[in-house]
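Hi team,

As requested, here is the filled-out complex form for the zinc ion run. I kept the field names the same as last time so the parser does not choke. Let me know if anything looks off before we queue the next batch.

— J.
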Amino acid sequence: MFKSVLFFAAALFCLASAQATEFIPKAEQVVDNVYAIVGPLGQRSKENDGSNANFGFIVTVQGVILIDSGASKVGAEKIAAAIAQVSRQPVRWVVNTGSQDHRWLGNDYFANKGAQIYALKRTAATQAEFANQHMQILSGFLGARLDGTKPLPATTLLDGDEATVELGGETLTLRYTDAHFPGDGWVWLPKHNVMFTGDLVYVDRILGVLPWSSVKNGQKAFHALEALNPKHIVPGHGGVCDLAKAKRDSGDYEDFLADVIGKAAQDMEPLDATLNKYADLPQFKHLYNYSDLHRANMNRAFVEFEAN
Ligand SMILES: [Zn+2]
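And here is what came back:
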C-alpha cells in the first residue's frame, strides 16, 4: 500500500515537471478584439514546438484572423487551442508576416480546416525557397514532434510593396520590411492602432542579423514604423509593448548597426578593431542572447555596408 502511494506520488511528480517545461500558448488581449500569443525567448525546442515567437489573432463575427501559424503541426494545434479559449469562431484566415519557420509551417494545419492563407507575394516565394532548409533544421530541434508538418507557402498572394485587405470587417495593411528575411512584412491594423511587426522588432531579446538579413532595410523599415506611431506593438519576439520600448530594444540597435558599424565599414576601418571597440554596449547588454549574437550581428552589418 505504502509502496503504491510512493509510486503514485513519483508518477505525479514526473507529470508535473513535464508539464512545467512544456510551453502552452496563451492568448492575451492587446486591445478590443485583438490578441497576442507571446512565445518564449529561448531557442526552438521539443517543449515549445518551435513556437519561440509571437503570434496574434483578431476575432470577428465572421471568423478569426490569425497572424502567423507556428512552426509545426503540433505547434499550430496548440495555437488553435489558445484561440479556442477566447472564441468559438473558426480560424478563417491566416496572414503570414514572414518566411521563417515559426511564421508559417502551421499553414497546412489551418488550411486543412478551411482557412485561406494570405501573404505578400515575395513572402510566399521566400517560404518556398527556405522550406527544405527550415524543415531540416527544425527536425534537429523537434524530432518526432515535427511529424505531420507539411510546408504550405501562402496561397492567396498580395501584389505590390504594400497591400490592404478587408477580412471579416477588419482592415489589415501588409507592407514589406525585408529585414530579418527577404520578403518579411508587417501587418498594421489602423482601426485598432496595433502593429504586428513580424521579425522586424524584437524586444527583451536582441534581434538577430542572419546572413540573408539586411540592416539597411531594417533601419529604413523601423523609421517607417515610427512614422505610423502605433500605440500597441506586437513584436516578432518578446512581450507586447509600446513604440518607445520597440525603439529602445530594436530601432536604436538597427541605428547603431547602420550608423556606427556600417559607417566604419564605409570608412574602411579594420573589421576586428571595430568589433572590439563596440563589443560592450551598456544600453543593449541586458537583452537576452546579447553575448551570443551581438558580435556576429556587427560582423554581418559590417559586411553588408562594406559590399556597397
Ligand atoms: Zn523569428
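Two things worth flagging: The radius of gyration is 20 Å. The chain has nine helices and twelve strands.

Thanks,
J.
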